[in-house]
Amino acid sequence: MPQRGLFKHFMEKAAQGKVPLACHFDLTYQCNLNCVHCYVVKEDRPELSTSEIRDILDQLAKAGTLYLTFSGGEIFAREDFFEIAEYARRLHFALRLMTNGTLIDEQVADRIAALYPDLVSISIYSTTPAIHDGITLVPGSLARTIRAVRMLRDRKVKLEIGSVLMSQNINDYSKVYELAQSIGASFRSDPRVTPRNNGDPFPLRFQINEDDLSRVWKDPIFTEQPKHDPEEFLSKDDRGDILCGAAHMSFYVSPYGDIHPCVQFPALCGNLRSEVFENIWYHSPRMLDVRSTLASQLPICSKCNLVEHCRTCPGLAYIEEGDFRAPSKTVCQEARIIGDINRGG
């Protein structure tokens, strides 16, 4: 079996066997930037300590987790980041880092390279400082981020440039793509702007309009983006009747130890300060509810004539409608546009 086919087979077996293969772990909600579209809402409770995180990582390794993405907030805002990351590498996780890059200097770049991360994803919203810095609300942030990208490139770190498309930067994505190409990084962007994780719709005011959304979905820059996340290797046919990988092969851990099905699906399934991970993964009523819901059972979506064009996201439906079985307005708009394009419209 070719390597790609073998990997796809591995993903299918993980989803079918309910192996918690991929974890997105926000280590902190602290950040040195103030991005206008950020989904994070800080709570008045302490974030996980170093020792608590180490214990959680032990539990995840025991449960079979392989892919571990550290994100935030800004991961390098934690003084103990490298202690945590080096411990994760000793547990043999395939480590991925998501960062804005502004806190990376030569010494930090050396330590990142020594982790041999599977991928480092850095956010760049525009190559024009006024636009990028206008989104982060921190003057000079673009220059610091690009400096970090170049330092990591010089150290042969595998890089991805990530960008959320908004009304402010919709005309700049091709330049960000060209920047990624010039430094040998992959490029990933998405036109989905999501509400904050408490349901606050404020970030939605930055969504692009339908004309721009149609332009995006006709552009090979987006339709031919490389696959990095395990679930992306599973097409709808591969997934069968499950909604997505959330609660089947992937999950999210918050800086407070909360477990959700996905970073974009803030349905509380348990907390690792008071519960053991495997008990939450296999026995949480909410996790089991998500896991047992089949695409064919969705009361509206299963009967929709756009289902073949739909990038189903139960998390967005949960945030927007309070019900993960309901249609998401964001997803429905996108499906209509993709359907028109596929029909030659």
Gyration radius, rounded: 20 Å
Range of helix content: 25-40%
Distance between the termini: 38 Å
Tally of DSSP helical segments: 14
Structural class by secondary-structure content: alpha/beta
**Biggest β-sheet: strands ordered side by side in the sheet:** 6-5-4-3-2-1-7-8-9
Output mean pLDDT. Answer: 90
Observed structural traits:
single chain, 345 residues, 39% helix, 14 helices
How would you describe what is shown here?
39% of the residues lie in helices and 13% in strands. The radius of gyration is 20 Å and the shape is globular. The protein has helices at 3-17, 50-63, 81-90, 106-114, 129-136, 141-154, 173-183, 210-218, 220-223, 236-239, 277-283, 285-292, 314-321, 329-342; strands at 22-28, 67-72, 94-99, 119-123, 159-164, 186-190, 250-253, 258-260, 270-271. α2 packs parallel to α3 and α8 packs across α14. The chain has 14 helices and nine strands. Strands 6-5-4-3-2-1-7-8-9 form a nine-stranded mixed β-sheet, with helices on one face. The mean pLDDT is 90. β7 and β8 form a beta hairpin. The chain is α/β, with parallel strands linked by helices.
